[in-house]
Fold this protein.
Amino acid sequence: LSQVANQITSHQIPKRSYATTMAETSKWKFNHTMLRVKDPKRSIAFYEAIGMKLIHKLPNPDAKFDLYFL
């Protein structure tokens, strides 16, 4: 395994800019799904980094969870 890992060098991995990635994913559709996350702030930051945005937050303090709509 280490021999294979040594054969892969950083110049073999294509480098992509954020703008290129956004252009490639701008026409993607993300259908409804539900994800359970431990850290909503970090998760929202991740999804905003890939082009999504927080639309609505629905707190449920009695049930000890919140719903985030992106």
Summary: The beta strands are 56-60, 65-69. The chain has a mean pLDDT of 77. The chain is about 35% helix and 15% strand.
